[in-house]
C-alpha cells in the first residue's frame, strides 16, 4: 500500500490541566502523524490521555503547548464548529428532543446544505448504518447498538475530513461489539474517511487498525502496524499491554542464551543480538513444550484449560515463571501435568530482546 | 409493612401526620364550601347558591384589582424569567471562586422575612423619589420572583449533559445556534416551570405589595384584605376560592411539566 499523505499531524503536543504545582500533565510532548484514509487507533490504559488527545483534535480542549495540524493547517485557535472533523461520543450524546432523522440532519443544516439535498442524504446515511425505517424514532426508543449507529450516521453525514471515535464500542456487549468492529471497518472503507479510534482494548485495536499508537501516562510508547507492535514491542510496557507475554532475564554469551540452572537456548531464538545481561519477552504461543531433550528445564506449576487453548505455567529451574500456550486439537491429550518436569524450546526469533538490560 | 420500616416507625406517627393534613386542608375546604352558601352570614349554612360568584363578577373594584394582579403577575413573570434564565446560563458549566456564595445569594431572598424585603423595597423607592404605583409593584415583584424562577431553570441546566452542547458545536453549530437548537429546547420545561412558579408567587403576594402599591395599584390580595376589615363576607370567600383555583391550576401545570420531561 502506498503511504498516503498526512491528514493530522500532532506536533510536540503538551496538555496540562490546572496550573502551578497542582498541574496534571495529561499529555507529554506527543508527536504523531495520522495518514489520510487510515484506521488509526489510540490505545492505552484508562487515564493515559487518549480522550484528552481526541478532544484536542476536535477542539474541546486547548493545546497547552505544541501544535495540531489538519492537512498542513494549524488548528490552534479554531473553535470546534470551525473544524471539519466530527466526533462519535462515548455516551453517543444524541439530541434527545430530536428524531433520528433530525439528529442526522443537524450537521448538514448547520453546514448550510440545501434543504432539498438533506432528506436524500439522511436516507442514504440511514441505509449505510442499516437503520432504514427508524427515521422518525427518538433516541430513547432505540437500543444501545442502534443509538451507536445513529451517532455514527450523524457524525458521518457532513462527510468530515476526519472522524473521531472515543471508546465507541465499550458500552456494547461482546457479540454486538464484534459485529460493530466489522461494521466500523466497512464504514471506513466505504466512506474513505480517516478514522481516529480510541480504545483501551488491545484486542479490538489489533483487529481493526491499520496503525496503532500505544500510550501510557501521557507519553507515546510506540506507533506501528498491529504486527509491528505485537511482534516487536518497543519496550516492556507495550509488550505487557498487548497480548500475553512472559518476561525473562538471561545472559547472552556468544551463540548461547543462558538461563542459569535451567540451561540454555541457541542465541538464534532472539530477534536481535547483544552481549551480556538481557531482558527478553516471549509470547506463550511461540514456545514449544517437550518431555525431555534440548531446551530449558522447568516444572509445570499450573495448567489452565480455556476451550480453544490450554495454558501451562512452567517454573524454570532458575526460578523464573514462564507461560506456554497450545491450541487444543480435537481429542488431543494434555502435553504435561502439574509437577511434571518439561523442557521448552523456541523457533528462531521468538524471543524479543528488550532495550533494558534487566527487568525492574 | 416492610420489615426495614419497622426499625424506625413508632406509635403515633401516622395519626400525627393525619392530624397535620386535616389541619392544613380543612380551613380551605370550609372556605370553598361557604363560598356557595346562600346565607349572607358567612358562618351559617342555609343552602347552595352561586350568587356570591355573580356578585364578584359584578363588582367593579374586584375586577379592577384582578386586572392589576394579572398585569403585574404577567409582567413580573416575563421579566423575572428572562433574568433568571440569563443568570442560570451564566452560572452553568463553569467553576470560579465565590461561585457557591453567588449561588447562595441567588436563593437567599427565599429565606429573608418578607416584611424586611417589603420595608427595604419601600425605602428604596422613596429614596429614589419614585411615585408608588403599578410600576413600583412590578419592579418589586420582578425582584422577588427571580429566585423562584431561577431554581427550576438551574436544576434543569445542571441535569443537562454537557456533551450535547459539544456535539452541537462539533456538528458546526455556532454558540447561538447551539443555544437555540439544543440548549433552549432542553431547558424549556425548567423555564416554563420557573415562570409558573413566579406567576403564582406574584399573584398571591400580599405583604410586599401592600407596602409598595400606591392608591391606584391595589391587587386582589390587598383588596381582599380591605374587605376583611369589614368582616368575612361570602363575597370574600368566593374571590378567595377563585384565587385558589387559579393557583392550583398553575401549581399542577408546573408539576406536570416538570414530571413529563424527566
Ligand atoms: N478536565 C480535566 N481536568 C483535570 N484533569 C483532567 C481533565 N480531563 C482529564 N484529566 C486527567 O488527564 C488524564 C488523562 O485523561 P483522559 O484523557 O480522560 O484519559 P483516557 O481517555 O486515556 O482514559 C487523567 O489523569 C485525567 O484525570
Ligand atoms: Mg477516555
Can you walk through the features of this model?
The complex is a heterodimer of chains A (360) and B (262). Chain A is 23% helix and 34% strand. With 360 residues, chain A is α+β, with helices and mostly antiparallel strands. In chain A, the strands form four sheets. Chain A has a six-stranded mixed beta sheet with strand order 6-7-8-3-9-10, sandwiched between helices. In chain A, strands 13-12-11-14-20 form a five-stranded antiparallel beta sheet. In chain A, strands 15-19-16-17-18 form a five-stranded antiparallel beta sheet, with no helix packed on it. In chain A, a hairpin with a 4-residue loop joins strand 17 and strand 18 (321-327). The longest helix of chain A is centred in the middle third of the chain and has 18 residues, at 174-191. Chain A is elongated and about 75 Å long. By secondary structure, chain B is mainly α. Chain B has two domains: 3-34, no CATH class; 51-261, MetI-like fold (Orthogonal Bundle). Helix content of chain B is 75%, strand content 0%. Chain B has helices at residues 3-6, 13-34, 51-58, 60-91, 99-107, 114-128, 134-158, 162-170, 175-204, 207-212, 220-228, 234-261. In chain B, helix 3 (51-58) packs across helix 12 (234-261), helix 4 (60-91) packs across helix 7 and helix 8 (162-170) runs antiparallel to helix 9. The two termini of chain B are 30 Å apart. The mean pLDDT of chain B is 88. Classes of the chains: A alpha+beta (360), B mainly alpha (262). Chains A and B meet through strand 6 and helix 2 of A and helix 8 and helix 9 of B. The structure holds adenosine-5'-diphosphate and magnesium ion. Adenosine-5'-diphosphate (ADP) binds at residues 17, 24, 26, 44, 46-52 of chain A.
Summary keywords:
heterodimer; A: 360 residues; alpha+beta; six-stranded mixed β-sheet; five-stranded antiparallel β-sheet; 8 helices; 23% helix; B: mainly alpha; MetI-like fold; 2 domains; 12 helices; binds adenosine-5'-diphosphate; binds magnesium ion
Amino acid at each position: 500500500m502506498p503511504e498516503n499523505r498526512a491528514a493530522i499531524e500532532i506536533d510536540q503536543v503538551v496538555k496540562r490541566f490546572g496550573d502551578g504545582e497542582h498541574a496534571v500533565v495529561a499529555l507529554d510532548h506527543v508527536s504523531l502523524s495520522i495518514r489520510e484514509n487510515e484506521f488509526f487507533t489510540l490505545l492505552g490504559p484508562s487515564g493515559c490521555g487518549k480522550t484528552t488527545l481526541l478532544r484536542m483534535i476536535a477542539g474541546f480542549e486547548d493545546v497547552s503547548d505544541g501544535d495540531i495540524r489538519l492537512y498542513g493547517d494549524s488548528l490552534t485557535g479554531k473553535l470546534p464548529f470551525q473544524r471539519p472533523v466530527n466526533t462519535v461520543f462515548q455516551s453517543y450524546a444524541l439530541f434527545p428532543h430530536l428524531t433520528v432523522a433530525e439528529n442526522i440532519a443537524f450537521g448538514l443544516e448547520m453546514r448550510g446544505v440545501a434543504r432539498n439535498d438533506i432528506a436524500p442524504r439522511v436516507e442514504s446515511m440511514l441505509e449505510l448504518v442499516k437503520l432504514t425505517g427508524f427515521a422518525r424514532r427518538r433516541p430513547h426508543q432505540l437500543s444501545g447498538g442502534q443509538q451507536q449507529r445513529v451517532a455514527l450516521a450523524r457524525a458521518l453525514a457532513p462527510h468530515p475530513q476526519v472522524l473521531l471515535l472515543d471508546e465507541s464500542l465499550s458500552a456494547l456487549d461482546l457479540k454486538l461489539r464484534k459485529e460493530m468492529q466489522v461494521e466500523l471497518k466497512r464504514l471506513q472503507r466505504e466512506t474513505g474517511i480517516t478514522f481516529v479510534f480510541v480504545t483501551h482494548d488491545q484486542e479490538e485495536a489489533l483487529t481493526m487498525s491499520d496503525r496503532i499508537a500505544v500510550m501510557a501516562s501521557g507519553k507515546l510508547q510506540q506507533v506501528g502496524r498491529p504486527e509491528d507492535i505485537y511482534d516487536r514491542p518497543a519496550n516492556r510496557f507495550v509488550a505487557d499491554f498487548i497480548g500475553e507475554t512472559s518476561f525473562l532475564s538471561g545472559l547472552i554469551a556468544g551463540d548461547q542464551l543462558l538461563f542459569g540452572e535451567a540451561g540454555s537456548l541457541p542465541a538464534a531464538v532472539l530477534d536481535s543480538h547483544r552481549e551480556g545481561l538481557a531482558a527478553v519477552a516471549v509470547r506463550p504461543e511461540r514456545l514449544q513444550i517437550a518431555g525431555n531433550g534440548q531446551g530449558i528445564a522447568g516444572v509445570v506449576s499450573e495448567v489452565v484449560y480455556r476451550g480453544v487453548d490450554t495454558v501451562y505455567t512452567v517454573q524454570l529451574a532458575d526460578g523464573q515463571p514462564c507461560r506456554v500456550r497450545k491450541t487444543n486439537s480435537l481429542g488431543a491429550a494434555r502435553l504435561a501435568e502439574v509437577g511434571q518436569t518439561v523442557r521448552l524450546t523456541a523457533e528462531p526469533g521468538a524471543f524479543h530482546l528488550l532495550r533494558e538490560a534487566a527487568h525492574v | 409493612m416492610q420489615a426495614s420500616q419497622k426499625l424506625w416507625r413508632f406509635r403515633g406517627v401516622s395519626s400525627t401526620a393525619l392530624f397535620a393534613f386535616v389541619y392544613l386542608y380543612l380551613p380551605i375546604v370550609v372556605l370553598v364550601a361557604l363560598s356557595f352558601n346562600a346565607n349572607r352570614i358567612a358562618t351559617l349554612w342555609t343552602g347552595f347558591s352561586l350568587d356570591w360568584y355573580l356578585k364578584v363578577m359584578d363588582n367593579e373594584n374586584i375586577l379592577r384589582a384582578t386586572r392589576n394582579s394579572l398585569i403585574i403577575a404577567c409582567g413580573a413573570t416575563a421579566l423575572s424569567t428572562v433574568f433568571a434564565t440569563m443568570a442560570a446560563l451564566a452560572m452553568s458549566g463553569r467553576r470560579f471562586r465565590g461561585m457557591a456564595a453567588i449561588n447562595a445569594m441567588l436563593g437567599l431572598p427565599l429565606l429573608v422575612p418578607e416584611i424586611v424585603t417589603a420595608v427595604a423595597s419601600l425605602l428604596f423607592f422613596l429614596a429614589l423619589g419614585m411615585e408608588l404605583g403599578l410600576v413600583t409593584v412590578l419592579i418589586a415583584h420582578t425582584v422577588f420572583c427571580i429566585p423562584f424562577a431561577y431554581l427550576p431553570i438551574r436544576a434543569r441546566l445542571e441535569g443537562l449533559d454537557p456533551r450535547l452542547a459539544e456535539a452541537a458545536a462539533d456538528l458546526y453549530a455556532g454558540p447561538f445556534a447551539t443555544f437555540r437548537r439544543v440548549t433552549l429546547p432542553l431547558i424549556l420545561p425548567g423555564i416554563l416551570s420557573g415562570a409558573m412558579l413566579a406567576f403564582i408567587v406574584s399573584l398571591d403576594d400580599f405583604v410586599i405589595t401592600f407596602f409598595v402599591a400606591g392608591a391606584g395599584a391595589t391587587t386582589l390580595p390587598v383588596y381582599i384584605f380591605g374587605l376583611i376589615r369589614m368582616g368575612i363576607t361570602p363575597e370574600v370567600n368566593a374571590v378567595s376560592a377563585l384565587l385558589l383555583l387559579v393557583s392550583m391550576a398553575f401549581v399542577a401545570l408546573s408539576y406536570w411539566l416538570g414530571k413529563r420531561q424527566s
